[in-house]
Design a protein that fits this description.
117 residues; mainly beta; L,D-transpeptidase catalytic domain-like; two-stranded parallel ribbon; globular
Length: 117
C-alpha cells in the first residue's frame, strides 16, 4: 500500500510504495498563525470539486479534497496556484490541481500520511 510523507521544511509531499519513492510534489503549507499539524494521520475521504458551472471558478479546494483523520485538515488542490511553495493555508496541504489529481489516482482511503517538520 502506498504511503505519504510530508516535509514542511522542504515544502514537499513524497509518495512511497514500500521503501521506493514513486513521486515528489511541491506543496503549500499553513501560515505561522495556522500551522500545519505534525503527526501521523490517514486519508479518510476523497471529494472531487469540479467547476461550479461550465467555465466557472474553481473551489478554494481546487479539483480534489482528501480529508485527513485530523478533523478540518486535508490535502487538496487550489484556485491559487501561486500559493504553492509558500506558508499560506489555514493548516491544510495545498497542491497544484494536476498534482493532487495524480496523487488521488494513486492513493485510497486508509493511506497513511506522516507530516514532519
Amino acid at each position: 500500500m502506498p504511503r505519504i510523507d510530508i516535509s514542511l521544511s522542504r515544502r514537499r509531499l513524497f509518495l512511497y510504495e514500500g521503501n521506493v519513492l514513486i513521486r515528489s510534489y511541491p506543496i503549500g503549507i499553513g501560515k505561522i498563525a495556522t500551522r500545519t499539524p505534525i503527526g501521523r494521520y490517514v486519508i479518510i475521504n476523497k471529494v472531487p470539486y469540479p467547476y461550479s458551472r461550465p467555465g466557472g471558478p474553481l473551489s478554494p479546494y481546487g479539483t480534489l479534497w482528501m480529508g485527513l483523520s485530523r478533523p478540518g485538515y486535508g490535502i487538496h488542490g487550489t484556485n491559487r496556484p501561486s500559493s504553492i511553495g509558500k506558508m499560506v493555508s489555514r493548516g491544510c496541504i495545498r497542491m497544484f490541481n494536476k498534482d493532487v489529481e495524480d496523487l488521488g489516482r494513486r492513493v485510497g482511503i486508509g493511506t497513511s500520511v506522516t507530516i514532519s517538520p
